[in-house]
Amino acid sequence: MEFPFTLPAANDFDVVGFGTNAIDYLMRVPAYPVFNSKVEMTDYVVAAGGEIASNMVGLTRLGLNCAYAGRFGGDQAGELGLRSLIDEGVNVTYAETVEGARTQVAFVVIDERNGERTILWQRDKGTAYSFNDAPLEAATRGRILHMTPHDASACIRMARAAKENGVIVSIDVDNVFDGIDELLLLVDVCIASAEFPEKLMGVADKKEALHGIASRYGCAVTGLTLGAAGSIIYCKDTFIETPAFEVPGGCVDTTGAGDAFRTGFLCGMLSGNSIEDAARTANAVAALKCRGLGARSALPDKNELDSLLKTL
After folding, report:
1. Where in the sequence is the domain holding 167, given as residue range(s)?
2. Contact at 8 Å (CB) between 106 and 77?
3. Which is the most buried residue in 17, 60, 147, 191, by most CB within 10 A?
4. Cα 41 to Cα 109: distance, rounded to the nearest angstrom
5. If residue 148 lies in a helix (H) or strand (E), which one and from where to where?
6. How far does the chain reach from its first CA to its final CA, in angstroms?
7. What's the CATH number where 174 sits?
8. Which tens digits make up the pLDDT trace of 205-249?
9. How many domains does the chain have?
10. What is the full DSSP assignment across 179-192?
């Protein structure tokens, strides 16, 4: 099935990302600790992460031209996060450093038996955007604008600017927040976490909830990431279910797997693939990401991705 919209033929960037960045403190343990216990870590890594920043890195590794718009704190973590984007070749014209604010951090505990993780995170309000300071120029310079709606009013303004300029709007969403109804009316591609549709629609059946989102808000493509079960995409009264790939060498860490899925899906869209092929690409990128610790360390380049896609 073809995507039910037309991407701009050309723009300054393939994708502009607006939203979260973070520094992750990743700890592998033999088993998740019980309350009031001590567990010796088997590995420990500090690495750059955050949904949108990681999406831009992943897409750049796959050969696309990307820009990141977001705020870092004026601390050592912010320096590390910003440098990580520059080193990967992501355009940072719209990245800002806020002196006196702290960069978002996450402490991630990973069970080495299966790679599943628990995340504790904090975001400084000093790095948030309001409606009035949304970087509107950035919204118009990509073929796709991809966002996390942590700063909902700013995202609404960005989405409006994008739509007025023919830019496709994509969001990564996992929770209900003030402004969600207004924002979703502006979204072309909504890829959510498995729990989100029930939170929003009050319907436990995932397919019924996806259909409800598309009907209520007019999103052209809606979908869910389902971890080891793969994904479901809904478009034009059709459900496209795609199985996950086995992680080459076994799953080390699932941190950022959903972000990697979105990276692959956007790459498939921009490559002119069908929705089925884009979903398959998305699942492949997610599987490859799980080879290593953190959200970015094992994100594939195009050769690695093509190699896995040829296995099935």
Report:
1. 13-21+51-103+126-309
2. no
3. 17
4. 9
5. none
6. 19
7. 3.40.1190.20
8. 999 999 999 999 999 999 999 999 999 999 999 999 999 999 999
9. 1
10. THHHHHTT-SEEEE
